[in-house]
From TrEMBL:
InterPro entries: Bact_Chemotaxis_CheA, CheA-like_dim, CheA-like_homodim_sf, CheW-like_dom_sf, CheW-lke_dom, HATPase_C_sf, HATPase_dom, His_kinase_dom. Residues 268-478 form the Histidine kinase domain. It holds the Pfam family Hpt. Keywords: Kinase, Phosphoprotein, Transferase, Two-component regulatory system. This is histidine kinase. Gene3D superfamilies: Histidine kinase CheA-like, homodimeric domain, Histidine kinase-like ATPase, C-terminal domain, HPT domain. Residues 1-101 form the HPt domain. It is an enzyme of class 2 (transferase). It catalyses: ATP + protein L-histidine = ADP + protein N-phospho-L-histidine. Residues 139-154 have a biased composition (Low complexity). The lineage of its organism: Bacteria, Pseudomonadati, Pseudomonadota, Betaproteobacteria, Burkholderiales. Residues 139-160, 192-216 are annotated as: Disordered. Its EC number is 2.7.13.3. It comes from the Bacteria.
Length: 612
């Protein structure tokens, strides 16, 4: 794909996504003229670029949709569900074509415009007596009786254009707004004389040389597009530079313990000042590079309203999707990887959680249900919540189902919180027969795997008859994680600061509840768990406790705490170790094992599930 086509595809994909969002908004507020005009402009812009790239199918779809919205915004056609449905189908077709181009499909191999889509758009245009001829640009006909004045736009194809392509319209579409004067509509009673090609050429030449154009400065570009691979390389180099600067600072601190006399003293002072400056600049470079990878989650969220609308329609349910916190920023990699998990969660909520209108009315609920998709920042994490006001989850039913499938034994998942986590087991489903939406026991397993791959955690809360909430916690930045460095059995480990509440001193003896050591913290009894024992290290004297923030708080015992550090994490790729998500280098150059966020939130449990 050449650079010009690639640039067009990127810009047009953004427009197509916004069009979809506008159409769903228009379905709720049919009289919103701003939205009508915005959709019209988007299709017009895409059509112009597609014509320039000789993408005929896309041009045809955009042209018909543009005609439809021209009729809608002028009041010739009412904003009906049929019109919105036709526009959504056209938007989907355009998006599919753009996605195919983005995936490397040559333009000449793209599919043609479906006849069904053409008929749907034509029917929508003609729905209120607006003829196809009136909606499509054509040369006005002379009526037998006294004709009404017909507005002829300057964008009407010239009679001399043998290929039938409206080149001037395409030219205007790819020219920055405000550069060319607006076309003047001329009222005529009979067919006007078509201008010659020479006259058109002179008109365009004259407009480009006008005073207004001369004094119109080109728009200043506020942003540029950079290949993601190049950005990742830059981030990795920036991280390594910070690590090298930190190691140099540690070496300098050790050197300062020696006495330097004579000419060595000013050299040491200069070296100290230089390394301090280098460390500050490398840290700023790293932060600035990280900022370039941050993107609002709204870029992801805006893809879901149409998905929910269509799936709800297929299932015969009435559902509204409420989105909050779309401006929350998170690492681009997280944004890209969350699409599939959120799709599974929304499909699960629609199929399992939301009742039909009749069932809701029988339960004294409104016939129309609500699914909420929220995002917000909490310390160094981003929180994403998917909640519904459906029927909730039955913990006992989940236990019985998992036991019957042989996924757990009768003594597992005793609490409701543990029972809710069973939905993430591979092969688990409460449906007896799989459908096109759910029932195969793979969707929620995919969700948990995807979240934990990015050092995140997911929790479920539910109330029978009230609804269910899925809460995802993810690090805002994937490459750098604020951690607390601890030691156990001589090994250095890092705990994500997102789970650390405070550090406490442990006594030599503990109270015991059910054979489990317990320590009172702020008046509440918390179980004490040995990090070394859980991870398989040799028993040691652990006298330092770290209170872990989890749904069921507990205290993690370690040998010592070495401080805090922002570590550059390298994921484990060749091996999989329970509880360990990656490695890093400390400022002293020592290898550090980074514990998993979900592992800590789950209470340091290493589960060995039964196989079916």
């Amino acid at each position: 794909m050449d650079d010009m086509l690639k640039e067009f595809v990127v810009e047009a994909l953004d427009l197509a996504t916004n069009v979809e969002e506008h159409l769903l908004s228009l379905e709720r507020n049919p009289g919103d003229m701003n939205t009508l005009n915005a959709v019209f402009r988007s299709f017009h812009t895409i059509k112009g670029g597609a014509g320039f790239m000789n993408l005929s199918a896309m041009v045809s779809a955009c042209h018909l949709t543009e005609n439809l919205f021209d009729a809608l915004r002028t009041g010739q056609v009412a904003v009906t569900p049929e019109a919105i449905e036709a526009a959504l189908e056209a938007s989907g077709f355009v998006a599919d074509q753009l996605t195919a181009l983005n995936n490397g499909v040559p333009p000449e191999q793209l599919s043609t415009m479906p006849k069904a889509l053409e008929a749907m758009l034509t029917d929508a245009i003609e729905s209120k007596g607006v003829s196809k001829k009136a909606a499509a640009p054509a040369t006005p006909q002379v009526a037998a009786t006294a004709p009404e004045p017909v507005a002829v736009s300057t964008s009407t194809p010239s009679a001399n254009n043998t290929d039938g392509v409206d080149w001037e319209a395409y030219y205007r579409a790819v020219t920055p707004a405000g550069t060319l004067p607006e076309p003047v509509a001329t009222a005529v009673a009979t067919a006007p004389k078509a201008p010659s090609a020479k006259e058109e050429h002179e008109a365009v030449k004259s407009s480009l040389s006008s005073t207004d154009v001369k004094h119109t400065a080109p728009a200043k570009e506020e942003s540029i597009r950079i290949d993601a691979v190049k950005l990742n390389v830059l981030l990795e180099v920036a991280g390594e530079s910070v690590q090298a600067a930190n190691q140099a600072a540690v070496l300098l601190e050790k050197l300062s313990q020696f006495k330097f006399d004579g000419q060595a003293a000013p050299l040491m002072a200069a070296l100290t000042e230089t390394l301090t400056r280098a460390s500050r600049y490398s840290t700023e470079l790293q932060r600035a590079t990280l900022a370039t990878r941050m993107q609002p989650v709204g870029r992801l969220f805006q893809k879901f309203p149409r998905l929910v609308r269509e799936l709800a329609r297929d299932l015969g349910k009435e559902v509204d999707l409420n989105i909050e916190g779309a401006e929350t920023e998170v690492d681009r990699v997280v944004v890209d990887s969350l699409y599939d998990p959120l799709v599974h969660m929304l499909r699960n909520a629609l199929d399992h959680g939301i009742e039909t209108a009749e069932e809701r009315l029988a339960s004294n609920k409104t016939a129309r249900s609500t699914i909420s998709l929220k995002a917000w920042q909490e310390a160094s994490s981003v929180m994403i919540e998917v909640s519904d006001d459906g029927k909730g989850m039955d913990a006992q039913r989940l236990r019985d189902k998992a036991i019957s499938k042989g996924l757990i034994n009768a003594h597992d998942a005793r609490t409701d919180d543990e029972a809710f986590q069973l939905v993430f087991l591979p092969g688990f489903s409460t449906k007896e027969v799989a459908s096109s939406v759910s029932g195969r026991g793979v969707g929620m397993d995919v969700v948990k795997t995807a979240v934990e791959r990015h050092r995140g955690a997911i929790r479920i809360s539910s109330e029978l008859g009230k609804g269910t909430t899925f809460l995802i916690r993810l690090p805002i930045e994937l490459s750098i994680v604020p951690t607390m460095l601890v030691r156990t059995d001589g090994a250095s480990l890092a705990l994500p600061m997102a789970t650390v509440q405070r550090v406490v001193e442990l006594p030599e003896t503990f109270e015991s509840v059910g054979g489990q050591p317990v320590l009172r913290d702020l008046g509440r009894p918390l179980p004490v768990k040995s990090l070394g024992k859980v991870l398989g290290y040799m028993p040691s004297s652990e006298r330092v406790g770290i209170v872990i923030a989890a749904p069921n708080p507990y205290i993690l015992s370690v040998d010592s705490v070495d401080g805090t550090a922002d570590l550059v994490i390298k994921p484990l790729t060749c091996i999989s170790t329970p509880g360990i998500t990656g490695t890093a280098r400390s400022a002293e150059g020592e290898l550090v094992l980074v514990t998993s966020l979900s592992f800590l939130i789950d209470g340091c449990k290493v589960r060995e599930m039964m196989t079916a």
